[in-house]
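yo, tRNA-splicing ligase RtcB is done. seq:
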Amino acid sequence: MTTFDADDVTLEEVEEHVWEIAREDGMNTPARVLASEALLEEIADDDTLRQIRNVTHLPGVQRHALCMPDGHQGYGFPVGGVAAIDAEDGCISPGGVGFDINCGVRMVKTNLTYDDVRGREEELVDALFDAVPTGLGGGGVVNGDAETMSGALSRGLDWAHEAGYATRDDLKHCEDEGMRPDAEPAKVSQKAKDRGRNQLGSLGSGNHFLEVQRVTDVYRTDVADSFGLEADQLVVLIHCGSRGLGHQVCSDYLRRIEEEYEEFLADLPDDNLAAAPAGSDLAEDYYGAMCAAINFAWVNRQLITHQVRETFADVFETPWEELGMELLYDVAHNIAKKEVHEVDGEQKELYVHRKGATRAFPAGHPEVPSAYRDVGQPVIIPGSMGAGSYVLRGGEESMARTFGSTAHGAGRLMSRTQAKREYRGEDVQSDLQEHEHVYVKAESGATVAEEAPGVYKDVDEVVRVSDELGIGDKVARTYPVVNIKG
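structure:
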């Protein structure tokens, strides 16, 4: 048995890549970290281990609180945290979802190859930057009037399809078909709606991006064929969330929890774990508001997809349909959904919190779209501007090990403040273009510095652990061609 000590936290390796923090006073379950020794050394550099241990103090946590291989310090929960909590006797935690509700990623396929864009990278990156609003504040694709906001919040991609921004296949290739039916727009404050009103169809800032990539490697040909992926193909990755609306929803409900459940919070080791007891009016209100923000984020990514399709049509002088610009899949991060899982031989309804983690349902699961049910749900793992990304499929071990979850990205090694001390955005841009042939355009050099390749963990190692544990199997690898950021 291998032991790993990090300050006041001790972990024991119960099997390869599975490290356990034993249950102690106040913990309702043990905690587990899924990582190689190299990744665990990096995870231990910040407060991640204490945070995942703290999560076990929440009432109703089942089996284990889990930290995925890309884990790093977050707000209350670590980023990369998964906690499945009894939906009847437990609680729901806004801190276990985060401020950017349904920050997620989608991949759009094309029938273009890398040769089709070689030499035209600057033309394409400029056109995409002009077409897709980026950065802090307002600016979107549509006017968020009351009717539009109501439709987006209540119906998600169903509204986008009706409004002409989505195809029926887009809905079929999105988690939950792009709509949470439990959404209650009335539970979203007017302040939140006002913050999101002019942001529908925008990337925002921070780690959000739009990236044209080429498929460099295929690991499971049969699954890649089912996904419609092949070597040298161009694809587009879109990563963003619910913008100011989701942030305000989280803020509003954290404040209400602090006001209404002061005694409940007093029993938790960290105020940032703030949670509402399952079955309470506040829990139901938050769930309805969160689901509405989830729908908003799906519409946001769909409107960006619409702009990307139109831009490709203009640049390549071909209708986007003829360019094969179909949605592969859209996966959500930062989410807590009611799901039924087997726990100790019993089927239980749980609030599955995935804070910077991705749903990864295996082949045969009824919630996997019919097009992929025989091979498993597509999972998209972004890396960095200089390291590439991965497409996985939900692994056979995911339900038993992680409540159907895996990592959501490479995971940060360095804070944004430190990154800006270490890197200059202009240098990062020129180095990527000169040495990696990656063209980056952003609102500011500071944003590029914050997202320099060196601030992230090794995405290859994160994916290797996921694959070897059987929670997310490698299908294909992609590499950046052009990238736009806020």
